[in-house]
Amino acid sequence: MVDYEVTVYTGDRLNSTTWNPVHIKLVGTDGESKRTWLRSLVIFSGSVSTYFVSCPNSLGQLVLIELDKRQFFLLPDDAWFPDKVEIKSPERDIYTFPIYCWINNSETHRFREGKALRIFDESNFLGQHARKQELIHRSVDYGWNLFYSGIPYTIKADGPTSLPNELQFSFTKTTEFAFTAVTGLAELQLKGLDDNRENWESLDNINDIFRFKGTLISDYVQEHWKEDGLFAYQFLNGVHPTLIQRCKTLPKNFPVTDDMVFIPDGSNLSQELKEGNIYLCDYKNLDGMPANTIQGIQQYLMAPLVLLHKRPDDKLMPIAIQLKQTPAEDNPIFLPTDSTYDWLTAKIFVRSADFAEHQINAHLLRTHLLAEVFVVSLLRNVPMVHPLYKLLIPHTRYTLHINELSRTQLVGPNGVFTKAAASGGEALMKIMARSMSSITYRSLCLPDNIADRDMQDLPNFHYRDDGLQLWNIIFKYVQGVIQYYYKSDDEVQQDSELQTWIWDIFNYGFLSEPQTGIPQVFATVPELIKFVTMLLFNSSGQHAAVNNGQYDYGRWMPNTPPTLQRPPPTAKGTTSEATMLQTLPPINVTVRGMVAVRVLSTQSSDFVTLGHYPEEHFTEEFPRQLQKEFKVELDRLSITINNRNKGLEIPYTYLNPKMIENSVAI
Ligand code: FE2
User: Which of 4, 83, 286, 456 is 20 to 30 A off residue 435, Cα-Cα?
Assistant: First the structure.
């Protein structure tokens, strides 16, 4: 007889202890062990326990293990979370089997040895069979669903509680609870205001309610929100830094003339356009969208155009605003020289449109929904033993769950978006479907995106500066891992799992539209590296850039009104403080919006920082070393950003790696 020493590491998560008997079977190239009971009455959370499995002969190279946990007599069925199993063979070889998932049923679960294997590395029939079975199982568990025509497919599920078991259990209840508006209302001490339908009587009134709930930046925003400087700054370093672009020729539907706008130092608009000092924000996506009705009152959503000028002192300032796309007498071009409330009202309508464009296109569609496509395609097409799975799985944590929660609690019929945003309800999906037409592969790759927007050299564009550094660090890490496993383009082409993975993404995420430029196949190693970098960047840094500042810039509602309840002025000289207050959302709608942005900006208690890999899916030394180097480089970037921020009036922290989560998880 020979003995195998089996060490079981159980995760230290809440409720990961099992009282149910657990059995193991070892499967090797020369045979398999008997299904053997791990002789424990209970396997505790956080425990490391060693057992012995005896076999008549050596099993050869270990290929996989089978684990099962059966409910026993009167004991309650429970969920067990093993981290990994280590096995010392009679030949004194050590095999590691990463698990990191919940086992909460009595089925037999197979886990492969940790060395990453591509499909053509599988020399053993048992490995090939296990690989196939795993994907068959997964393609059933992780189906595609057409949630709305014209937007990316989502996972097939009827809400968070119908997600596959392994995902449901992985999501902590506290995080789920924190997601509910009730918690936010209590936390912000706003109970009682959520059914007050009155309009705000004054800005001081708003201040009285929200005075003590600020952050450093939200307090700054409250103080400076009327200023043109902050209005322009937010296009660069607020929560929506992806719309602004350099403008060399004015759009035909935005007829601003030289004599309309004041340019200091004797220059004029034509000259500044030529010199590349003019920038544009165009909300054409929102044109003609049906604005929501909230509490029986028609809301208003504009599709503005904003022109900005980079002054000789490098400061960006707005110089003209047109609130609707079609030029007309009743669609004036507002200017900083107009009356205080005309100009301020125009800016408020822009900020409200920006809320819609930011939330629906930049945040929900381009990070949350695309991340979901990346996760579902990975789980359907790539087995656990594949290097790509090991590389990407830490960057998928909670994404499916949070998106399912969003579909019910944010954008569903009773969701806060439907009850508080002009772009909620019917408009939301229409805006998202239209936004799909602007999605290209280049727009998802930050270096290309910045080049296409011609934004390479505008000073004080911290999102760009930090984002490009982050992109390069992620690229280097991904390149290291991919080049370790793929030595030639041939190997990439031969990997049928990689090819079905990208095909699924093209098909279900980008609706088979070739003009998006999304790869349909991978032909070369560099193509694969670029795509995986894009995926990892958008699921981590880009999401942080458009997510984490929502409360900073949204807490002071007049700076980011989620909805407006009066039409925009159709002539100059018709606005006042009173019309502005009547235009802003009423008290309860303000409160709902604020609670939502608060909840969505709050770091969860089990936040996993970018580049931290508490789960060791890679067991080989080289990729683990690359992960360590990745973390060192991220730490270095964090220090650089902190030092830069010391000299800034408004620190830009959203792309500080310490504030970025590994995945889209909130
Ligand atoms: Fe988010």
Answer: 456
**pTM for this one?**
0.96
Distance 546 CA to ligand 1 centre (A): 7
What is the reported pLDDT for 182? Answer: 53
Task: Residue 376: give its domain's CATH number.
Answer: 1.20.245.10
- Residues 67 and 133 occupy one common structural domain: no
Nearest-angstrom CA–CA distance, 345 and 359: 21
Do residues 47 and 153 share a domain? no
Domain check: are 47 and 125 in the same one?
A: no
Same domain? 544 vs 637: yes
> Which SS3 state, helix, strand or coil, does residue 582 take?
helix
What is the per-residue pLDDT for 415?
85
Give the Å distance between the CA of 133 and the centre of ligand 1: 34
Q: How far is the CA of 550 from the centre of ligand 1 (A)?
A: 9
| Structure confidence by residue, pLDDT tens digits, 138-153 | 999 999 999 999 999 9
pLDDT in the model for residue 599: 80
* Ligand 1 centroid to residue 634 C-alpha, Å: 21
549 CA distance to ligand 1 centroid (A)? 10
**Ligand 1 centre distance from Cα of residue 661 (Å):** 11
The rounded Å distance from CA 41 to ligand 1 centre is 42
Alpha-carbon torsion angle 651, 656, 661, 664, nearest 10: 70
pLDDT at 266: 87
DSSP H/E element including 63: strand 62-69
User: Residue 450 Cα, ligand 1 centroid: separation in angstroms?
Assistant: 22
CA 665 – ligand 1 centroid, Å: 7
pLDDT means per 10 residues, the chain with 666 residues, are 96 86 96 92 90 96 95 81 96 97 90 97 93 96 94 90 70 52 59 84 87 86 97 98 98 97 91 98 97 97 98 96 98 98 98 98 98 98 98 95 86 88 95 95 98 98 98 98 98 98 98 97 98 98 97 95 97 97 95 84 84 97 98 98 97 98 93
CA 425 to ligand 1 centroid distance, Å: 19
The domain in which residue 251 lies consists of: 115-666
Verify that 109 and 165 share a domain, yes or no: no
Residues 26 and 154 occupy one common structural domain: no
- Number of domains comprising the chain: 2
- Please report the pLDDT score of residue 544 as a whole number: 98
The domain boundary, picked from 114, 138, 167, lies at: 114
Under a CB-based contact definition with an 8 Å cutoff, are residues 425 and 293 in contact?
yes
Give the distance (Å) from ligand 1 centre to CA of residue 162: 21
Same domain, 104 and 121: no
Q: For residue 185, with 0-12 CB atoms within 10 Å meaning exposed, 13-18 middle and 19 or more buried, which class applies?
A: buried
Asked if residues 590 and 166 have their Cβ atoms less than 8 Å apart, the reply is: no
Ligand 1 centroid–CA 622 distance in Å is 33
- Report CA(406)–ligand 1 centroid distance (Å): 9
Q: Are 596 and 576 in contact (CB under 8 A)?
A: no
User: Same domain for 548 and 630?
Assistant: yes
Cα–Cα distance measured from residue 627 to residue 613, given in angstroms and rounded to the nearest whole number: 8
Q: Do residues 10 and 80 touch, judged by C-beta distance below 8 A? A: yes
Listed in sequence order, the DSSP H helices in 486-620 are 489-494, 496-504, 525-539, 541-547, 550-554, 577-583, 587-601
